[in-house]
Amino acid sequence: MNITVLAVGTKMPRWVDEAVNEYAKRFGRDVCYTLKEIKPEKRGAGVNAAQGMAAEEKRILEAIPAGAFLVVLDERGKAPTSVELAGHLENWQRNGEHVCFVIGGADGMTDRLKQQARLMMRLSSLTLPHGMVRVLLTEQLYRAVSILHNHPYHRE
To answer: Domains of the chain, with CATH numbers?
Structure first.
């Protein structure tokens, strides 16, 4: 199964990269996990939030793998349990889907980009820093895979 995470933002703290890499290497051969950083648009000097999100949208759309099942992380999305996320992964894998998750920039994402998503999902009702979202999403994807493999990582 192919999973791509597109995350607006660069130069994350070392602990973020280390944590994401740690969970990513645990996937093993069953999952090809890729994290691609999308350059954020600088704000100020005549660039407002809407213009910045539009520029980021263009970069995101160019980075989405062809034919991918698009999942946008948004505070108004559905909040699946870990077991429900595992069910989504199982369905996507069964259907041969390449799944692409999008983590927007500081101002969020355009409505147009959200409308293109086949699923809008949230990880928490809390506002989280972008680095934490990368770590949390990667850990939850690993947890979902471990649930599907009956690995003892997840306990109910």
So the answer is: 2-42+51-149 (3.40.1280.10)
136 annotated as ligand-binding: no
The candidate with the shortest Cα–Cα distance to 139, out of 28, 6, 32, 22, is 22
- pLDDT tens for 104-116 read 998 899 999 999 9
Q: Is 125 one of the annotated binding-site residues?
A: yes
Mean pLDDT of the chain: 93
| Annotated binding residue 126 | yes
82 annotated ligand-binding residue: no
Annotation-wise, does 4 bind a ligand?
no
pTM of the model: 0.94
Point out the residues of the chain with pLDDT beneath 70: none
